[in-house]
Every structure is written in structure tokens, then in C-alpha cells.
Amino acid sequence: xxxxxxxxxxxxxxxxxxxxxxxxxxxxxxxxxxxxxxxxxxxxxxxxxxxxxxxxxxxxxxxxxxxxxxxxxxxxxxxxxxxxxxxxxxxxxxxxxxxxxxxxxxxxxxxxxxxxxxxxxxxxxxxxxxxxxxxxxxxxxxxxxxxxxxxxxxxxxxxxxxxxxxxxxxxxxxxxxxxxxxxxxxxxxxxxxxxxxxxxxxxxxxxxxxxxxxxxxxxxxxxxxxxxxxxxxxxxxxxxxxxxxxxxxxxx
Amino acid sequence: xxxxxxxxxxxxxxxxxxxxxxxxxxxxxxxxxxxxxxxxxxxxxxxxxxxxxxxxxxxxxxxxxxxxxxxxxxxxxxxxxxxxxxxxxxxxxxxxxxxxxxxxxxxxxxxxxxxxxxxxxxxxxxxxxxxxxxxxxxxxxxxxxxxxxxxxxxxxxxxxxxxxxxxxxxxxxxxxxxxxxxxxxxxxxxxxxxxxxxxxxxxxxxxxxxxxxxxxxxxxxxxxxxxxxxxxxxxxxxxxxxxxxxxxxxxxxxxxxxxxxxxxxxxxxxxxxxxxxxxxxxxxxxxxxx
Amino acid sequence: xxxxxxxxxxxxxxxxxxxxxxxxxxxxxxxxxxxxxxxxxxxxxxxxxxxxxxxxxxxxxxxxxxxxxxxxxxxxxxxxxxxxxxxxxxxxxxxxxxxxxxxxxxxxxxxxxxxxxxxxxxxxxxxxxxxxxxxxxxxxxxxxxxxxxxxxxxxxxxxxxxxxxxxxxxxxxxxxxxxxxxxxxxxxxxxxxxxxxxxxxxxxxxxxxxxxxxxxxxxxxxxxxxxxxxxxxxxxxxxxxxxxxxxxxxxxxxxxxxxxxxxxxxxxxxxxxxxxxxxxxxxxxxxx
Lengths: 252, 290, 288
Fold this sequence. Notes:
heterotrimer; A: alpha/beta; four-stranded antiparallel sheet; C: two-stranded antiparallel sheet; 2 strands; 76% helix; 3% strand; globular
């Protein structure tokens, strides 16, 4: 019997997490659909990053379940979940500071590099790997000197390289924590077009953002979170009531 | 006579080089500050000494000297499973200092403070390695093989993952790298080669005592690697030559042998502190110690 | 009676380890780094006390005072010269461990140079008369060791718990940034912390000198036992560190019944290792 693939790549069910008595995630449930851009919006401290940490495995939930492709990933390690197809972009620009951009990107290509014996005996297929990198960078329309170290790039360039990295890495979904925060309006416009292009290329994006206007322009679904609770799970069209946003952002 | 002096120096430099290049793989390249690295050396030395004194053929003793420290390397690496790097360093520090005491006090097995003497020189293929020239060639050969092996690792994509782990362990994990597995492999390789170095030492000097376990000797290895520059094999090689010149210079200055021991450790400690403070990249390092 | 001997041995060993543990973990508690050079200071104090009593021939009381003053002075010096600069450079915790290890070895090699590597014994300069309790002998010096340890524990806990400076120390320990914003001079508090910790190191050194035979590496060995005690009891808890020291002392004395005495130190390592793997916060530590 052929099992039809569900529409949801990630399903979070009743996840709760406390830190030192403080409830950071309160019975959260949400589904991330394939080939969609899902955005989670909420003020600082509402639990967005914690939710991402729980999905990616760096934090274990106190209760609830997380499914990736219908498999329960609650107890899996970070690298296991990553290898199941989760690419992640962190809130803070995250690189290997002493390695060149080229090396940073080469590390994302696959995990053949963790095979000790194979790598002592066989040479690395560098030509093929470099092609993947240059193709991806061309797709994103960015030109950088690959021998530069990460700190030599501008912040905007760094963010795009991080997106390149998450695309290069074999993945089914890219989770992004505030990808456009700190970017100029012009850059944000570029990113908007980029994300829409990615969606056309059948990517699945799950991003956390502050900028509601940005999110409204690109997201298929918007999830509102506050104080660890999912308040709203809807589409941009249905959000006409701007005062609801204001109420949450300015606090109750 | 001068040839004996030079060959003696060559042998010592080779042994220290093999030990230090292994340490550079775990510390400089992968970021694992394993202060028990010297214990691996000691384990290799004592394993080969005890086995040789009981008549074990040399090559078997050599192999077992490499394998023995791997057991302890694996146990220590378990600390890396769920805890941050500092915990590993602390566990290795405790192991280094406590194992010295254990060896110092266990008289039946290790001869206690008096150590073991009259370790037989190796006889391989019928050649008696009592001849210092043959032994030097043998030692240099093994050292070059070991250094070449580590060079292969360092330049490979596996080596790149090691650098990544050093730079940003969490990011490496989120890119799908099983950092625990890699750290275990690195420590196993480093401990094997260092154990072999210990065997070469024991068979050459034919007398060992607990000082091969002494945490003070860790300073020599640290000085070599930090002076040479982290993650730079060339740096470690050059560093070995420079650091091992210090006791020779002291000997030349007619300083009494009893003092040379602690004096050179004192000097190495000061050199280390100065480099960490003023020139964290050492001579050839692309990475700063920080 | 065997059991009394056991209890006395445990009390003596445990007191020494607990003394070292509390001096060591005080610095970790307030300043959040592992100061292994503490072991070097203990060794130096032990040797200085030995020299003063045995060779210079100064009365016990004055020797104690001089040793403590020297210890406190050196501790503050190290903090001001070495550690403060490292703090300003925002050195990583791994590097701080490395540097405190280098300092520990520096102390050890210095002592080897100046005092020689041969083993030194303070007896017979110290009397070995003692009491008899339930048929077991405990010497007067050993009684003083236990009393001095208890005195140090109580003083430290009262100081940290009830004095103004102690309150500031706890504030800095809980949240350094918040303490700074509240107007506490953290550098000054660090200095006080080091003075107290170094005094404890001095007391530890004197106690060690009285009870054990000295060799240059003794401080390294003891600081690891003190460290293990702190981890077992709870690295963030002063009371826990004291308890941890006694636990290590207890387990060592139990262990020598079953194992050859050479493997005594293996017990410490196994305890430390198990705690690190299974309960790094120790018995009384909170989940940091």
C-alpha cells in the first residue's frame, strides 16, 4: 500500500518547555506545510528561538512531540536531525571564523567528510564540490571572494552566504531565525524577491521575524506567538485587524 | 663522539616531534585541550617496558604500546558526549595528575619511584638495535610515517571538519557533523601515535620512571605546539627543534644536571605565557590560541 | 578499634581535602573560573612553613602568621597582575584553565629549583604526642588540623553569608553584570575573594606540611582532590564543596580496604569522572 506523503513536513504537537520554573513554550502546536513559506511572528522573548531550538534538537521538550516527515524527532541529536534534512540559519551570524568562505561552504555539502578512513585513502572531489558552490552563489546573485574570512564580509553578504550554505546543504526545509533583521530596506527587498524565488524552486521555508510587513509580503502562513503560546495560525489575507498585532507587540 | 651526541639529539627530537604533532592534531586542529596527552606517552613507555622485560617481541610490544593508551583516550573522550569542551579538559587534567601518582606508588607493576631498568633494545629482523645509528634511522622512519599520516588527516576534508569543530562546535553539529564521533577518532589517533613514541623512548633509554607521566612534561609539548603555532604541522616541527635546544643550551652553559630538569620546565612555562600573551599565533599558526 | 581509626583517618584526610576544596571553589563561585594555581600556592605555603619551622627555627605561631601573610600577598599579586589582565582581554574559559595549569606547573618547577625534589618531612620538629580515643591514637597536630579546618569552614561561611563584603560576593557570583550596574566594584570584590582564598591556601599548606611528607608535586595532586570534592559536592555551593572534600576522603579510606594503596588516586578520578558524566552539578549544585 502506498502511503501518501502528508502535506506537512514538520508537525509540532503540544510542545512545552520550562527553564528554571519559567514556562517558555506553552503547549505549542503547529504544522509547517511543504513548499510553503511559514512565518512565526512574535515579540522578543515570546519563544520563537526556543521553538527552533526544540525542532532542531539542541533543546529537548518537557512534553509533546515533533515530527519531521512523520518521524518523531523529539529525542534525536542535533546532527541526526540536521542530516534528516533540516538546514538552519541562526539569529546571530554563525560561521567558522578561522576558515575561508569556501571552506565554510564546503563543510555544508555533505557529510562524507566525517568518514575517517575514506578521507585518508581517497582524495576529495573538490572540482565537483566547487561547482555546486559557484552554481548556488550565482543563483543567489552574490559575488564574494571565496578566500576571504567571514569577518571580512559585510553583514548583508554574510546573511546571503548563510542562505547559500543552507541551500548547499542537502535539505528538505530551511529554518531561519530573523533572516532580515538588521538589513537595509534595499537589502530587505532583495531578500523578499529571493525568498519568493526560492519558493518557486519548491523550497520550504520556516522563518521567525519581527518585521510584519516583510512577512506579510512573502508568507503563505503566519503564526503568532506570545509568551510561549501560539495565539494565531492564519494567512496574511485574513490578518486585517492590525490592532491585534499592535496589542501583542506593545504588551497586554 | 660528536656523532653519538647528534644521533642522540635526533632520536629525542623525533620522539618529541611525533608526540607533539599528535597533540597538535587534537588541540591545534580540533580544539581538544587534552592535558592527559603526556599520560598517553607514559602508558606507551611503560607498556613497552613491561612487555619487553617479559620477553615480548619488539613489534608486538610496539603495537600494544600504541593500543594501550587508546583505551584511556576513549574513556576520556566520553566526557565529550554531552558536555562542553571545558569539562573534557578538566577530566584530562585530573587524569594526568592522578595517573602520575598511581604509577609512582604502584611498585609491583611499575617499579614505583625507581621505575624499570634494563629494558632490552629491540631486535628486528635479526638486527640488533643497540647500534645508535640503526635506532636513529628506525625512530626517524617511524616519526616521518606518523607525521605524514597526520598531515594526510589535517589536509583532508576530515581535517577540515576538525577545524570546524574547533571554531564552532554547535554550528558543525547543526550542519550534520557528528562531532562526538570525530573527537573520539582524533583522540584515538593521537593516543596511538603518542603511545608508539613512548615505546621508542623506553626502548632507547632502557630505563623509565614515573617522570614520563609527569604533568610537567606536558608543558614541553604545549610549548612546542604553541610556539610553532596551532594547527600548523610545519610550526610544530620547527617548534620541536627550538624547544629541545633549550636544555642543550643550558647544558652548554655548564648548569648542573639536577637543575636543568626543573629549570627548563620553568623556562618553558614562561615561554608559553609570553607567547599566549603577546604572539598567540606562534610562529606559523593561522589560528590564534584564545 | 578499627572503626575509630577509620573515622579519624577519614576526618583528617577529609578535612584537608575539604579545606582545599573550599579555597578553590570560592574563586570559582565568585569569579567563575578554575584557579588551579591554587595548588601551587598550597605547595609554596607548605614549603615556606616547613623552612620557617625546621630551618629558620621560628616559633610555630609566627611561622603560621608569616606563611599566611605571604600566601595572601602572592594570591593578590597573581590576581592583580595575571588574572586581571586576562579578564580584561576576555579570555575564554578554556584558556583560563590552560593558563592556571601553566601557573601550577610554574610553581612546581620553581619549588623544585629552590627547595629540591627530595622528600621533606616536618617531623620531628613537631611533636607527635597525642590523645587516645577508644583505643586509637590521634596526635595533637592532627587534632589541630581538624579544629583549624572547622574553624576555617565556619569563618568562611559566616563571612560569605553574613558580612557586607560577603553579600557583595554573592551578588557578583549570582550575576556579575547586575552587580556592576548596582554599583558594586567587582574588581575590589575579586580582590577580597582572592585574599580569602589565598589565606585558605596558606592554611591548607600549613596543614599539609604538618600531616604529609612534602614533594614539589604535592600541590597538583591535592588540588585535583579538592577539585573532585568541589565537583562532587556542587561546584557552586561552598557547603557542598566542604562535604565533597569529606566524601572524597571517606571514599579513599574505604577504598584502601579493597584496593592496593597505590590505586587510591584512581578512586578520586573515578568519582570525578562519574560526576562529570552523570551529574556535573554535583550533589548540592543547582542546574547552571
